[in-house]
Write a structure and sequence with these properties.
Pfam family, one: Aminotran_1_2
GO molecular function: pyridoxal phosphate binding; serine C-palmitoyltransferase activity
Radius of gyration: 25 Å
Oligomer: single chain
Subcellular location: Endoplasmic reticulum membrane
CATH class of one domain: Alpha Beta
Membrane topology: Single-pass membrane protein
Family: Belongs to the class-II pyridoxal-phosphate-dependent aminotransferase family.
Number of strands: 20
Number of helices: 19
Distance between the termini: 45 Å
Structural class: alpha/beta
């Protein structure tokens, strides 16, 4: 699916930052720990460079935090001793009362609070989750044994008898999870809808009489299901309004298909108009559009890097980024999710040691990150990534598939959200499939970059051009977001989405659920953990006319199964209240309220060989 990640591992360090404390109306502290070498005052423009590590001790009239906090900026309300922040008694009391959540901000790098939480999995829940998967695995082997001796009917694909001595076409072990675990809860996915994927949808009812191996439609339609799963962030997925009218008009004039590539006879005036509009929207020199968001990543990364280059990829990057990196032939090294210490260590090692065996310098070093991570709901620490990118002279590839339109005061994505200069990002990638209610993707950057991709990108040379009605949908929605249509509808949608996100996240946390991600992220993961609860949650919510997306292994770590809600500006407060009421009821029914309101400070997570230890500088 959209959030599958082939190289997910159990996260030992999510972020690499520390837990700061608010002082004088804003937050001070370290937002990710750029390492000993990167923490100097010159690199960050701070007025205080960290000194040697001190010991934790309580000062008169104050209190120290659970772990030392490196100071990358001046502290107005609190003491600084030995390079660590000592907070006041009032601030410490607020922290002890749970009023201060997992907040990180790296001095002058951040112009706004950065609130992101990943509550620790309760030990009992983790143990029971492993036990549940163990039981399912044992019964899976038992059923495979019964199938082998034809005691149980075998539904899955197998080789013909005369092919048994050849290399297996269907790898038996690789399909074990699909046969014995996924099939039990398969009815929660691929549900066919028969309406516009707006705030409410109609779902075709289906039944299975062979334990989810096949489905039959009953002929009934489940009406007005509240849609909490689609990426319709700004509510442009609709069949009425200016976007629909404009697309219908273009459909009459241009038709549906182009039947050619951009380089041949498929370059329409609408494509040129769209690319100029996208470049202006992003604040870059030029942009190029593609017919498929997944291919925008997987087919363009191989055009940018090759053998002799180094790719540094976040461990939770989307499958399209992973595939593009693998197809490029470049060396790939993975850093811990949003962990700036891990990223800087890889950058340092790349520069110091160069390529393996030859020790030659890397031709290019490309950092791959996403704006919003579609399974975690976290936002990239872009100010720190840019600081590292500049310091070590690397290139930055930013995937804004989920953040473009959904973040920032003007909807221009994570760059707008942090108030950064678009020129600091070398390659800006995004899709039109979410906030714009359309299809396709784009890449923006320097004119030289775009001109190069027009002749070297497989997506540009071989892929069919975007459909004209789809192009018009993007143009109309983007003009609406920027206010070029003469209305304030786009601005209102952006504000409504932000309000819905904060309200929904706050209510879920107050109910006692464990919620991952950033407080401003429209992707809201609710942790389920146990495999049996994945299917149960999806089914119980559908019974209550709420459509949700549930996700499990291998798209997530094995003990971190979850339900993923996607908020939309089209959701009214009444819809959200209805959904929250049902979620609360199902949470009590399935015992999903695991939260103990205790977030894990990022530096309390164990380090390994890819992260920095606390060292004296």
């Amino acid at each position: 699916g959209s959030g599958s990640r082939p190289h997910v591992t159990a996260r030992q360090g999510i972020g690499g930052g520390v837990q700061p404390f608010p002082v004088s109306g804003r937050l001070e502290g370290c937002g990710g720990g750029l390492g000993a070498a990167a923490a100097s005052a010159a690199a960050y423009g701070s007025c205080l460079a960290p000194s040697a590590a001190g010991t934790m001790r309580t000062e008169p009239g104050g209190c120290c935090c659970r772990r030392p906090v490196r100071a990358n900026d001046c502290v107005a309300n609190g003491e600084v001793r030995n390079g660590y922040v000592r907070i006041s008694a009032a601030t410490a009391a607020a922290a002890a009362a749970g009023q201060i959540h997992h907040v990180t901000q790296n001095g002058g790098l951040y112009k706004r609070p950065f609130n992101e939480g990943f509550e620790e999995t309760p030990m009992l829940v983790a143990v029971l989750t492993y036990v549940g998967y163990g039981v399912l695995t044992l019964f899976g082997y038992l059923r495979d044994f019964l199938r082998h001796w034809r005691i149980e009917k075998c539904h899955h694909a197998t080789e013909r008898e005369e092919q048994k001595d050849f290399v297996s076409l269907y790898q038996d072990f690789e399909n074990f999870y699909t046969r014995n675990l996924y099939m039990r809860i398969r009815d929660n996915w691929n549900r066919p809808i028969c309406s516009v994927p707006g705030a409410r949808v109609d779902i075709m009812e289906r039944q299975s009489h062979d334990y989810n191996w096949s489905f039959k439609y009953t002929g009934n339609v489940i009406k007005d299901v509240i849609n909490m799963g689609s990426y319709n962030y700004l509510g442009f997925a609709r069949n009425t309004g200016p976007c629909q009218e404009a697309a219908a008009k273009v459909l009459e004039e241009y038709g549906v298909g182009v039947c050619s590539t951009r380089q041949e006879i498929g370059n329409l005036d609408k494509h040129e108009e769209l690319e100029k509009l996208v470049a202006n929207f992003l604040g870059v020199e030029a942009a190029m559009t593609y017919g498929m968001g997944f291919a925008t990543n997987s087919m363009n990364i191989p055009a940018l890097v090759s053998k002799g280059c180094l790719i540094l990829s976040d461990e939770l990057n989307h499958a399209s980024l992973v595939l593009g990196a693998r197809l490029s032939g470049a060396t790939i090294r993975v850093f811990k999710h949003n962990n700036m210490q891990s990223l800087e260590k890889l950058l340092k090692d790349a520069i110091v040691y160069g390529q393996p065996r030859t020790r030659r310098p890397w031709k290019k070093i490309l950092i791959l990150v996403e704006g919003i991570y579609s399974m975690e709901g976290s936002i990239v620490r872009l100010p720190e990534v840019i600081a590292l990118k500049k310091k070590y002279k690397a290139y930055l590839y930013l995937d804004e598939a989920h953040s473009i339109g959904a973040l920032g005061p003007t909807g221009r994505g994570v760059v707008d959200y942090f108030g950064l200069d678009p020129e600091d990002v070398d390659i800006m990638m995004g899709t039109f499939t979410k906030s714009f209610g359309a299809a396709g993707g784009y890449i923006g950057g320097k004119k030289e970059l775009i001109d190069y991709l027009r002749t070297h990108s497989h997506s540009a040379v071989y892929a069919t051009s975007l459909s004209p009605p789809v192009v018009e949908q993007i143009i109309t929605s983007m003009k609406c977001i920027t206010g070029q249509d003469g209305t304030t509808l786009g601005k209102e949608c952006i504000q409504q989405l932000a309000e819905n996100v904060r309200y929904f996240r706050r209510r879920l946390k107050n109910m006692g659920f464990i919620i991952y991600g950033n407080e401003d992220s429209p992707v809201v993961p609710l942790m389920l953990y146990m495999p049996a609860k994945i299917g149960a949650f999806g089914r119980e919510m559908l019974k209550r006319n709420i459509g949700v997306v549930v996700v499990g292994f291998p798209a997530t770590p094995i003990i971190e199964s979850r339900a993923r809600f996607c908020l939309s500006a089209a959701h009214t407060k009444e819809m959200l209240d209805t959904a929250l009421k049902e979620i609360d009821e199902v949470g009590d029914l399935l015992h999903l309220k695991y939260s103990r309101h205790r977030s894990v400070p990022l530096l309390d997570r164990p380090f390994d060989e890819t992260t920095y230890e606390e060292t004296e500088d």
